[in-house]
């Protein structure tokens, strides 16, 4: 939409959530183009959504909050897919963790554009207190809880326990990225085998 595009009519009273969703969709489209929070402008978001720039502040206090809310939608979908897979797994904590990790890989394969948005959006650094509220915390907490369940069942986590969720996260992310870009046949069962091997290396009786 160009600079001279008409501003959309104001939503009727009670439709603020609709405006919020339109702002999130506009932000997502723009992030796919610019790839960076720093390169994103609130003016451009407002223009893409067809509203005046001050309207954004009715829903988001600043650009970082808007970007995080946009990413949160995708993180929530990914976390929900992981939780659903774990719920369907055998009543064994390692099996549930394995199901989570495999679901993570399958989600990335099935939704490549959304997945890239999560990891190719360069975000502005924030302080530790605010960082604790980042939407990626959904994944970290899920793996923390899954590892705790494994420990309660008698398994030991090799290495630093505090870093173990990040070991899982960086490992599956790195393997997915290699799977996506390399010219090898796209057999997703290779990702499943990687998850199995990673758990054998991370957990011990």
UniProtKB/TrEMBL annotation:
Recorded hits in InterPro entries, A to Z, give: Homeodomain-like_sf, HTH-type_TetR-like_transc_reg, HTH_TetR, MT1864/Rv1816-like_C, Tet_transcr_reg_TetR-rel_C_sf
Residue ranges constituting the HTH tetR-type domain according to the UniProt record: 17-78
The source organism is Streptomyces inhibens
Question: In which residue ranges does the UniProt entry place its DNA-binding region annotation?
Answer: 41-60
One Pfam family name is TetR_C_33
Ordered alphabetically, the record's keywords are: DNA-binding, Transcription, Transcription regulation
UniProt-listed SUPFAM superfamilies: Homeodomain-like, Tetracyclin repressor-like, C-terminal domain
- Where is the secretion signal located? none
UniProt GO MF annotations: DNA-binding transcription factor activity; transcription cis-regulatory region binding
Q: What is this protein called?
A: TetR/AcrR family transcriptional regulator
């Amino acid at each position: 939409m160009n600079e001279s595009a008409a501003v959309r009519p104001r939503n009727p009273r009670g439709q603020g959530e609709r405006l919020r969703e339109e702002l999130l969709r506009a932000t997502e489209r723009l992030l796919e183009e610019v790839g960076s929070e720093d390169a994103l402008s609130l003016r451009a978001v407002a223009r893409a959504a067809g509203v005046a720039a001050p309207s954004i502040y009715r829903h988001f206090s600043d650009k970082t909050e808007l970007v995080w809310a946009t990413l949160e939608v995708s993180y929530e979908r990914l976390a929900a897919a992981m939780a659903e897979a774990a719920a369907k797994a055998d009543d064994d904590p390692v099996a549930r963790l394995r199901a989570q990790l495999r679901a993570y890989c399958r989600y990335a394969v099935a939704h490549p554009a959304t997945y890239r948005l999560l990891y190719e959006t360069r975000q502005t650094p924030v302080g530790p207190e605010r960082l604790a509220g980042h939407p990626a915390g959904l994944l970290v907490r899920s793996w923390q809880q899954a590892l705790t369940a494994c420990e309660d069942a008698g398994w030991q986590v090799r290495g630093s326990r505090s870093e173990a969720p990040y070991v899982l996260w960086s490992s599956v992310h790195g393997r997915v990225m290699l799977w996506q870009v390399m010219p090898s046949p796209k057999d997703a069962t290779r990702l499943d085998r990687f998850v199995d091997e990673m758990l054998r290396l991370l957990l011990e009786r």
